[in-house]
């Protein structure tokens, strides 16, 4: 019998690891450091080792990594791309060597070893046929990665043909594996540029490299300062190569960057000493290294030792210890991430850790803060791990004065004030408001992205610009963009503007599933969106679906169902959907032949104030009613829009503003019904309306 608390702990660990796996491998946006994550996995491994009955087929220890995002072409690795087991100190490194010696035949001599810095970047595979670079792929889950050939072609240290120098005959085929990474100086400079452009900052060089290499637009990759180190090759037998060391020399000869700090040793004590030396010198490296990799040199011996699950027995990563210091936790701030995750961070009395002044540190999530019993005002241990973001390890309880305060997540988003959501199965708290300013740029880019409305020319960079220019406040504002909003802005000539507006216009006809996926509902990607639309072929029926109904869809669990209903329950999300509808975006699968299209203003309540340029109050009312809308005399929560003309009445206007109700002029009112409003400047340069 397994004690219930142990199986509960294993369950909790699996859930947490799965979540962090997803953040790290799929989103490239981890919320914990590698060291923290490693600790969770080690704990789970230890538990499962003690109690093998606890191992479930879906345990994170039973698979290599997360699924690829599925937006690049998939590449199956003919030989899996392995990962490495970890050793956290010299004792564990020695234990690894003892195991090897036990596994080798009695009396076999001590093997030679190669020790290399473990570069913190992204593992890639490069295939060369007859000397030509033909395919580059990410590691993905180790078995299947993504084809990122075009992106890797932009990395200058990756040779496009080999040998890079001289005209020796190339090998018929080789596959080179190595790490794409970013040098520290390049990383700092990139973040500086990102900050100036108000773009998202990368947490560490690893994320910067991974995010850059996995851009769908390879011209963005080209602008990123990426480097590459080769550390492994396939096709060695054909080249007559029998060891790691010989492979490194061969790769160097072909023109691949190979780490100059790799060394071969015949004496294990020298391996340990070399690792120690590096640990002391790690701060002098021009790149981020999170440890040393020690490999058995000889390929024949490697084969003899083989592989257990996804880690080779013949290699190990000796992780560098994190650097720590003690300081006071002054307060807890909240960051709203691109997916709406609220992440608490520590505001610290500045402290020097390994030459770097630290005044902020991550706190991961509320659960973690409570688990570690970290309180505001505590003296805390701060760790700067192998990555750049420091973290709070633990409080020093002995130094408490009694003045310390517990932290609680706010019930509303600090950026938009909407209520936040926290489902019981997840550790994270989310802001579900798709138009939350903190999430806006990301949600617009997602909405316009390939899996969704596929608006050519509307990427993250443009989303950021348009938001900065005050043109977009939610995704629906895309459909209100006009030529004069953009023309003569930097980079926006006539051609570019008209192409963009045409692309936006064209996107109105995308299938409903694309729209649903574009809304950015948590856990709803293209696949889930299709399932939803199959059952609910119009947005109005989908928005009315209950959690219970949704769960009856095959392939949809309670988590997704809850997230869907929560999304549509949000007032501001519903407002965005109304705006999209009014803009003429397709809201259902094609209506059956002969069925009338719904009136565009159906279900919307309007209030009119002031004198409109061409319509009298009566005409405007009739106009709205003719298109299915309602007109009332005063502004309330139920008001969808306030239509404003010259000299508006004070209270209606201020009340609408206070309630965040969208305000329309006559031109926008006409645009709502999707009627072709022609606008042309008169001889005074003013815009006149003709219907
Ligand atoms: S060897 C079977 N050598 O570490 C050997 N890996 O945790 C596989 N890495 O996926 C890898 N520097 O991304 C090797 N000098 C090095 C490395 C290295 C960094 C990364 C690589 C791998 C991960 C394993």
Biggest sheet features: 7 strands, antiparallel
Q: Name the ligand types.
A: 2-(butylsulfanyl)adenosine
Name the shape in a single word: globular
Total strand segments: 26
Strand content: 15-25%
Quickly count the helices: 24
Instruction: Give the CA-CA distance, first to last residue.
Output: 78 Å
User: Class of the largest domain, according to the CATH hierarchy?
Assistant: Alpha Beta
- Superfamily (CATH H level) name of the largest domain: DNA ligase/mRNA capping enzyme
Poorly predicted sequence stretches spanning 5 or more consecutive residues: 63-69, 675-691
Rounded to the nearest angstrom, the radius of gyration is 29 Å
Total domain count: 5
Q: What proportion of the residues is helical, as a percent range? A: 25-40%
Write up what this structure looks like.
By secondary structure, the chain is an alpha+beta fold. Helix 16 packs across helix 17. The strands form seven sheets. Strands 14, 15, 16, 17, 18, 19 and 20 form a seven-stranded antiparallel beta sheet that branches. The chain has a five-stranded mixed beta sheet with strand order 2-13-10-3-9. A four-stranded antiparallel beta sheet has the order 5-4-7-8. Helix content is about 35%, strand content about 20%. The protein is globular. The chain has five domains: about 5-65, Helix hairpin bin (Helix Hairpins, Orthogonal Bundle), CATH 1.10.287.610; about 85-320, D-amino Acid Aminotransferase, Chain A, domain 1 (2-Layer Sandwich), CATH 3.30.470; about 325-400, OB fold (Dihydrolipoamide Acetyltransferase, E2P) (Beta Barrel); about 450-585, DNA polymerase, domain 1 (Orthogonal Bundle), CATH 1.10.150; about 605-690, 3-Layer(aba) Sandwich (Rossmann fold), CATH 3.40.50. The chain contains 24 helices and 26 strands. Mean pLDDT is about 85; it is low at about 65-70 and about 675-690. Bound molecules: 2-(butylsulfanyl)adenosine (IVH).
């Amino acid at each position: 019998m397994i004690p219930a608390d142990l199986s509960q702990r294993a369950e909790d660990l699996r859930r947490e690891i799965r979540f962090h796996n997803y953040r790290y491998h799929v989103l490239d946006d981890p919320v914990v450091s590698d060291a923290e994550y490693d600790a969770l996995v080690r704990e789970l491994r230890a538990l499962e080792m003690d109690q093998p009955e606890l191992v479930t087929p879906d345990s994170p220890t039973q698979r290599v990594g997360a699924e690829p995002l599925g937006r690049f072409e998939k590449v199956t690795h003919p030989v899996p791309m392995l990962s490495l087991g970890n050793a956290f100190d010299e004792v564990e490194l020695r234990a690894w060597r003892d195991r090897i010696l036990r596994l080798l035949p009695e009396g076999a001599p001590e093997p030679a070893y190669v020790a290399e810095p473990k570069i913190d970047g992204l593992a890639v595979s490069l295939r060369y046929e007859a000397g030509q670079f033909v395919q580059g792929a990410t590691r993905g889950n180790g078995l299947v990665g993504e084809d990122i050939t075009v992106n890797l072609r932009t990395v200058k240290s990756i040779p496009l043909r080999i040998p890079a120098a001289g005209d020796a005959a190339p090998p018929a085929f080789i596959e080179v594996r190595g790490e794409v990474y970013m040098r520290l100086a390049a990383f700092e400079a990139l973040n500086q540029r990102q900050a100036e452009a108000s773009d998202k900052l990368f947490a560490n060089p690893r994320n910067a490299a991974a995010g850059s290499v996995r851009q769908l637009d390879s011209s963005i990759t080209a602008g990123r300062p990426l480097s590459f180190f080769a550390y492994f090759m396939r096709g060695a037998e054909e080249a007559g190569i029998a060891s790691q060391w010989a492979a490194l020399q061969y790769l160097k000869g072909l023109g691949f960057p190979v780490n100059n700090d790799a060394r071969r040793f015949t004496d294990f004590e020298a391996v340990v000493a070399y690792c120690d030396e590096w640990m002391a010198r790690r701060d002098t490296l021009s790149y981020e290294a999170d440890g040393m990799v020690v490999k058995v040199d000889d390929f024949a011996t490697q084969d003899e030792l083989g592989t257990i699950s996804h880690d080779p027995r013949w290699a190990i990563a000796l992780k560098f210890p994190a650097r720590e210091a003690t300081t006071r936790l002054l307060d807890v701030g909240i960051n709203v991430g691109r997916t709406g995750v609220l992440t608490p961070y520590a505001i610290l009395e500045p402290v020097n850790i390994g030459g770097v002044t630290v005044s902020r540190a991550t706190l991961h999530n509320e659960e973690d803060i409570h688990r570690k019993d970290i309180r505001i005002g505590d003296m805390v241990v701060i760790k700067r791990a192998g990555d750049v973001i420091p973290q709070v390890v633990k409080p020093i309880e002995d130094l408490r004065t009694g003045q310390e305060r517990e932290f609680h997540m706010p019930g509303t988003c600090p950026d938009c004030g909407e209520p936040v959501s926290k489902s019981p199965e997840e550790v994270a708290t989310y802001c579900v408001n798709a138009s939350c300013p903190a999430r806006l740029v990301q949600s617009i880019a997602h909405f316009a992205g390939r899996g969704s409305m596929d608006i050519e020319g509307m990427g993250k960079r443009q989303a950021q610009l348009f938001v900065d220019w005050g043109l977009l406040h939610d995704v629906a504002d895309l459909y209100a963009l006009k030529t004069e909003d953009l023309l003569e802005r930097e980079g926006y000539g006539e051609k570019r503007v008209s192409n963009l507006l045409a692309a936006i216009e064209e996107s109105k006809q995308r299938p409903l599933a694309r729209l649903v996926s574009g809304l950015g509902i948590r856990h709803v990607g293209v696949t889930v969106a299709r399932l939803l639309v199959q059952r609910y072929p119009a947005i109005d029926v989908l928005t009315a679906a209950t959690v219970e109904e949704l769960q009856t869809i095959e392939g949809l669990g309670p988590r997704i169902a809850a997230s869907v209903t929560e999304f549509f329950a949000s007032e501001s999300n519903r407002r965005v959907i109304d705006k999209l509808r009014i803009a003429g975006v397709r809201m259902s699968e094609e209506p059956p032949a002969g069925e009338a299209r719904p009136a565009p203003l159906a279900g919307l309540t309007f209030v009119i104030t002031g004198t409109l340029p061409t319509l009298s109050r009566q005409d405007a009312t009739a106009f709205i009613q003719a298109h299915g809308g309602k007109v009332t005399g005063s502004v309330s929560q139920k008001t969808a829009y306030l239509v404003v003309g010259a000299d508006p009445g004070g209270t209606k206007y201020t009340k609408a503003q206070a309630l965040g109700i969208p305000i329309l002029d006559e031109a926008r009112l006409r645009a709502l019904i999707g009627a072709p409003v022609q606008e042309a400047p008169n001889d005074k340069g003013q815009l006149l309306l003709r219907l």
